[in-house]
Amino acid sequence: MTHLMAETFTVALAERSYNIEIGPGVLQTLGDRVNDIAPKARIAVIMDATVQALHGVAIEKALSQHDTHLIVRPEGESQKSLVNLEEILDSLFQAEFSRSDIVITFGGGVIGDLGGFAASIYKRGMPFIQVPTTLLAQVDSSVGGKTAINNKYGKNLVGAFYQPKLVLTDTDLLKTLPVRELKAGYAEILKYGLLGDAAFFDKLEAGLGADLLALNEAALIEAIRISCETKANIVAQDEREGGVRALLNLGHTFGHALELQAGYDGDLLHGEAVSVGMEMAFRFAVEQGLCRASDAERLSAHLTATNMPRISDMAHLMTDPNALLSHMGQDKKNESGHLTLILPRKIGDTYIEKRANRGAVLRFLTQLRDKA
Questions:
Q1: Annotation says 241 is catalytic
Q2: Is 222 marked active-site?
Q3: N or C: which end of the chain has fewer CB within 10 A?
Q4: CATH code, domain with 297
Q5: Is 340 part of a structural domain of the chain?
Q6: Catalytic site includes residue 252
Q7: HSE-CB of 184 using CA atoms within 13 angstroms
Q8: Which of 191, 225, 231, 332 is catalytic?
Q9: Which of 155, 245, 302, 332 is catalytic?
């Protein structure tokens, strides 16, 4: 069977350690994996309506031997709110789930974040399994235990660090993914090369990225594995983002500001914002004399070659530099009123700037607006 091709590695977090399995067809093993974790548990599957239409039959088949309760939500970033969190909790309470039962989040990053947070606080915490269905979720949000919802102050500001018991990453699920969503996931893959693995960026630039975007199976497995291993190694060093884990936010401070400006209405996907945010971080670093212009140009050229979102595509969100700076001021990484940015010295070498100059950032944002 195809799932025998899966690659497995462990996120090493002592008693919170868990496996990530990557490959085509691994969804078929979900029922067996549930039995390994808690054979008598009832299962709550949280998914959105789009995923249910595409893959609902497959997951029901995989869990056919289990007592399963489906919680189906509308799709979109707007689902990550207190109101929708409470509706999920209500469904769990009404169905009389115990804290020893299992939540399975079956979907993209929104469902993973929302369902994982619900699992973390339901009766003070119940086990959950991540089955990510988008490339972005497979390489980023399903790894590392961050669960959260949004509020009016910004993205992911209410949440918990709560590790899953297992991540099943089925590359077959990507065959139904829209091209736009695939590219949003590719932004996070690029991030891993840019933040600390220049050789990986070289491979992506040399053709691995194009092969991945063409859904070449071997390229997908290789890129997802490298991305997950990179993130897992960083998380193992710094589970709760007190230090090096912040590097995983390369491009995110600028990107989250763009997302908040866009209003989470579907106009801008998270990965699209990260793509633009990474280009902004490199351009800002060049202006500050931290990074060679040739490295920023190399990133921009690769974004163009793979038809990824760029700064020039975001003029409609850059008309108010002061608003963007204000959004950046809400970032979770900020400390004692100081603006924190993840900035590159070169491709494959980034650092945490805990006292970024707000005036310099505002001038940079103003220049981008004026050039638009």
A1: yes
A2: no
A3: N
A4: 1.20.1090.10
A5: yes
A6: yes
A7: 23
A8: 231
A9: 245
